[in-house]
Design brief:
The chain has helices at residues 2-14, 38-69; strands at residues 19-24, 29-33. By secondary structure, it is an alpha+beta fold. It has one domain (2-69). The protein has a two-stranded antiparallel sheet. The N and C termini lie far apart (33 Å).
């Protein structure tokens, strides 16, 4: 969850959209920003999903390499 919202935060910074609130709590993350277009919202949601997918692929590759080469 934290990684997802961190990816969204990075996307907002990359698009120069001001983030007015970023409060991480134990069970959720409160993030507030002012999107200018629908494309910005779509990009933010995709960035969070893609960073989660990227981490999953990294963990899969690490697992594969460790099983294959560290026997």
């Amino acid at each position: 969850m934290y990684l997802h919202f961190f990816g969204e935060y990075l996307a907002l910074l990359a698009m120069s959209i001001p983030v007015t609130k970023f409060d991480p709590y134990w069970h959720y993350v409160n993030i507030e920003y002012a999107p200018w277009r629908v494309l910005h919202d779509v990009t933010v949601v995709l960035a969070g999903t893609l960073i989660n997918t990227f981490l999953f692929v990294i963990m899969m590759l690490t697992s594969y390499i460790s099983v294959k080469y560290l026997k």
